[in-house]
């Protein structure tokens, strides 16, 4: 069954506490991205873990293999559930980072977080991708990066719903597909490009659905949450 992850795209820990309190036991999984982590640091993670919530720390590490592996090792002590890197960092970077993270967690007797890779940001469409200089289309490149990610030993990818079914068909049921750009029927598109509704994402094989502003900026957050959870019941 697919799982909802609420993106805490905010800078203030008090705002985070308000959201978590509002959603209470209805939401178990939260995403902490650059905005919140750079503002509040480990305090945000510690608060969520103290509330018995699962945490996806979405920092999208992208650098040379040694730097990324050391970055992940530094983050491993936070006891988060999912960490991520950019797949475009390459096979060697992903493989070395994954092996280094696991080795460190084994030695320190820490729970090993899932490590996933970002394929192509959901704000980028085919036209934008060509402007960057790539010749292939987004869908084929996402699949190429997903295959590379699995070969490197990682647990899954971040990809849009438009590629989710293709990834599932090629890489199997146990490979995580975390899908941002989820816009329920009542929400605005905002700055996302490759988007879909919760029901579409689930039908296409997404294992985790990331929803942010459609929930956290809603006038009636609980009503918005109920509508999203209802859309996920297929």
UniProtKB/TrEMBL annotation:
Binding positions (substrate): 9, 31, 58-67, 122, 183, 192, 212-213
The entry's keywords: Decarboxylase, Lyase, Pyrimidine biosynthesis
Reactions listed under catalytic activity: orotidine 5'-phosphate + H(+) = UMP + CO2
Active site: 58 (for ompdecase activity), 60 (proton donor), 60 (for ompdecase activity), 63 (for ompdecase activity)
CDD domains: OMP_decarboxylase_like
Pathway entry: Pyrimidine metabolism; UMP biosynthesis via de novo pathway; UMP from orotate: step 2/2
EC number: 4.1.1.23
GO molecular function term, any single one: orotidine-5'-phosphate decarboxylase activity
InterPro entries per the UniProt record, alphabetical: Aldolase_TIM, OMPdecase, OMPdecase_AS, OMPdecase_bac, OMPdeCOase_dom, RibuloseP-bd_barrel
GO biological process, one term: 'de novo' UMP biosynthetic process
GO cellular component entries: cytosol
SUPFAM superfamilies: Ribulose-phoshate binding barrel
Family: Belongs to the OMP decarboxylase family. Type 1 subfamily.
Assembly information from the UniProt record: Homodimer.
HAMAP family found in the cross-reference section: OMPdecase_type1_B (MF_01200_B)
Functional note: Catalyzes the decarboxylation of orotidine 5'-monophosphate (OMP) to uridine 5'-monophosphate (UMP).
Protein name from the UniProt record: Orotidine 5'-phosphate decarboxylase
Taxonomic source organism: Campylobacter ureolyticus
